[in-house]
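Bench notes, afternoon.
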Amino acid sequence: MYFDFWWILFIFDGLLFAIVLLTVVYFTVFTIAAQFKRGTKVTKSKRQNRFIILIPAYKCDEVIERTVKSLLGQIYPQRLFDIVVISENMKEITNFKLAQYPITLLTPKFNKNSKGKALQYAINNLPQFKIYDIALIVDADNLVMPEFLDEINNAYESAGTKAIQAHRVSKNRDTATAILEATFEEINNTIFRQGHISVGLPAATSGSGMAFNYNWFKENITKSKGVWDDKVLEALLMRQHIFVDYFDDIYIFDEKTRASSEFKRQHGKWLSTQFNSLAKNIKYLPGAIYNKQYDLIDKILQWMLIPRTLMMGIIFIMSVTLPFIYMSLAIKWWIIAALIMLVFAIATPNYLVDKQWDRAFMKIPFVIITSILHLNVLGHRSRR
């Protein structure tokens, strides 16, 4: 019995370490690649595309008006872009205020709310005579600079692809939770966007600040069944061989979660979404390998990696508990803990590292453990 315990411990420790090591190596490679800052060179375009700006807004009464004003303040010719707000479950006074702006306001009634349904409803209810070149997705709490549309137009033309992603950054760091979320977002920008672009792989989408060829977007959103999260979108783009370009110098400002409870719920949702996406797309891996479709292989590999929050939780638990069981087994966990902290430090932009960040850093272990407890892979219901 004593002998069996040690064999089980060694096997369990070895397998768990191998899974974590694969994830850490993946993060390390793309963090290093991101430091070379390779990507599409943007030039001033002679062509001015016509934009449809879609803003799904679910119970966003406090922020939606600022977002609309931000987009209306563009230096880009106003005749070349239309703003569509899809208002779901917002107050009548909010809708009344929005109706005073030169925008299109839609107020659908869904039994179950979802971003995909909102976007699909907007496309299906646009006047048939309207012609657009680019569909731009913006969240209801986003803000942009006056030159944003002009920069997106130039980037889209320079990229020569059907999908591009802007650099989403935090517009608020007023709580420890908001600081942590802003940091995690920038780490994602480094690893999954700039790092990938630097080695010639497509960037991950981030949910807003995304611009697509309008005809492609219209065709695919109308085919969807209301399920349109980032993972579904990425899988669709990869299967259709569409490269997603990323532009690190084009910013869109996103409001980060202030409450720790919402932060934990959100991360639990992301963990669930990753596992569900893997289950739905693993069947495409053999074909991707056979056809040498490296972008799809990479995307499926991303979903096979242990989620970052879960990985950090495992490293923390193994580093703390193993010394009391078998000291020599703990050493490799200490080394990998130091490595991943170094990788994340490199991936975090300097502007985020200040006294506020130092205070937020102390909350990381608590956030990791509680986020894991909120994981609900089976039976997860998407909420906005």
